Amino acid sequence: MVDPELLASLIVFALVGTLTPGGATILIAASGARFGFRSSLPLLLGIVIGLASLVALAGAGIGTLLQSAPALQTAMRIAGSAYFLWLASKIARAGSPNLDRGDAAEPETVISGLVLLWLNPKGWTMALGASAAYSELAPSPATLALVMGGVFACAAGLALTFWCAGGLMLSRLLTTDRQWRILNITLALLLIASIAPMWL
């Protein structure tokens, strides 16, 4: 049986963890601003599945492998940083939605969201922290993985919907190409800034 008090605490932890700014929230806000809510759904879904699967695996005990392999952690940080920099360059180079879009006009996919989370040390840190803090939540690792994955999927879905809608609302205030350039460069810089905690 799942401990209800621990479950309530996990829900709060998941909501706070997924609502705070980071690479995923900045990327979904940028997608909402540029492509709208509906076109951002594949990215949102990929991020949700990515986080839920990370947390479920950590709850099942797989996370201890990562903690015991410093070389794997370093490789993940490097790959994650490179991927974030590539995404930031795409955002910074994007014009306003009414310009000729070229290849920068395609919204990110479900796979992009999955890769973002699987290469994101913030996501791994949150997953490992939750699995350590809430290991007594359920009687078996399988149940723990299922409950934690479900809680984080719901929390991430709500948080990312909020950020995507915020990006969409912000886009309605932008009327000139210059304003779009400023927004795109600002979001790209915020995404780059989100790399720093990976290395601290």
Helix content class? over 70%
Task: Report the biggest beta sheet as strand number plus sense, adding barrel if it closes.
Answer: none
What's the tally of helices? 10
Number of strands: 0
Q: Which blocks of ≥5 consecutive residues have pLDDT under 50? A: 99-104
Estimate the strand proportion: under 5%
Task: Average the pLDDT over all residues and give the rounded result.
Answer: 85
H/E element sequence: HHHHHHHHHH
Task: Characterize the overall form.
Answer: globular
Rg calculated over all Cα atoms: 17 Å
Structural class: mainly alpha
Tell me the distance between the termini: 38 Å
Short description:
The protein is mainly alpha-helical and 200 residues long. The chain is built from 10 helices and no strands. It has helices at residues 4-19, 23-35, 37-60, 63-67, 70-93, 110-118, 121-133, 141-171, 177-193, 196-199.
